[in-house]
Amino acid sequence: MRNRAARTTYNPGVTDLAQLVSEITACRACARLVRCREAAAKSPPKRFAGESYWARPVPGFGDPSARLLVVGLAPAAHGGNRTGRVFTGDRSGDWLYGALHRAGFANQAASVRRGDGLALSGAYVSCVVRCAPPGNKPTPKERDRCVRYLVRELAILTGVRVIVALGGFAWDGVLLAAATLGHAIPRPKPKFGHAAEARIGPWQLVASYHVSQQNTFTGRLTEPMLDRVFARARAACAPR
Q1: Is the pTM of this model over 0.70?
Q2: pLDDT tens, position by position, 78-106
Q3: Strands 162-166 and 197-200
Q4: With contact defined as beta carbons under 8 Å apart, do 92 and 79 qualify?
């Protein structure tokens, strides 16, 4: 695929996730996304009235020694944008962390808020765009500005062997990040489809339909389908 992101120059001193999390949460690079995330916090639905919203970019979450990286599209306006943790506080998170729990990557299925006791073992969860976008649709320019954080995560999380991309946007975002890191992308470009796989550099890329209600409520994605993806990911993570 065409690499529209600038090649990244790495500072050897910036090697830990804590520094990266600090940089992500301070970002205000995309004015449209800043307006969207802050507007959601000012006008919450009745079920969240009175809650204090995170309303900042949402960093990744999980085990720094992860062999599995899960990548989504962006935080939900009243999910991660509210709670400050990716895929937390909404139905998408219920599906994702439920599947990670059944696959042995999470100590519990519930992901309600930061500090709820959830811990991941061998897995890290992230997204391509870090702020809640209008209509859940980031622009290409917003993706290309934000993908540098995914690039940095891939550089820091050196134990990752498998990447599960939730949805076509995440699939393309991972390919863009890999290309930015200098890894060759097969030609023709690997196509997204549920349970599709591609070998990209040191990673096995595995696709799943996104865990959004648009897919789970309609039956396009079922729990057994999602479980098979994570069973495949766990097998591919196993040391050889």
Answers
A1: yes
A2: 999 999 999 999 999 999 999 999 999 99
A3: unpaired
A4: yes
